[in-house]
Amino acid sequence: TRYIGDWSSDVCSSDLNHTYSCCPFDVHNRTRAADMTKKVFEIPADHPMFAATHGGYESYGYSPAVRAGNLLFIAGEVGFRADGSIPESVAEQTEVALERTKEVLRLQGLTMADLVEVVSYHVNLKDTVNEFLPVKARYTEKPFPAWSIIGVEALALPELKIEIRSVAVFP
Predict the structure, then answer these.
(1) If you count Cβ atoms within 10 Å of the first and of the last residue's Cβ in the chain, which end, N or C, has fewer?
(2) What's this model's pTM, rounded to 2 decimal places?
(3) Which residues of 76-95 are buried (b: 16+ CB within 10 A; e: fewer)?
């Protein structure tokens, strides 16, 4: 008899009866999980798109992106323009946040097509989603990444209405 979580066997105990090696992120695959290394991605301080906001990474103690195994976890991007200003419209904030996401991906040799998960945070969700969706549609294509939409009371600054965090996979 095999039980879920029985790591003494080399065959998965699920109904699919597959081997551990085909489940790289499954909880019963301790070896591969232990081998997953973490690498922090640094954006050059003089990068034109991020220069005005670059100091925030150190001030607030976070990385713009972290690679773990073949996944790239991108911190929440907001609508800061290159000069540090924030657009008033939700559509433009969304556009800027997605362009910033696209640039982080590009710097890692990836594209928007490599996204596997997107989470968007919306202040006043019912008032922002209609401006957000058409912009999001221009940046995503089939097969679509998983997407969660979350309404929040506030973001880091009162002017911010949208924040988007993402996970991409390296080929």
Answers:
(1) N
(2) 0.78
(3) bbbbbbeeeebbeebbbbbb
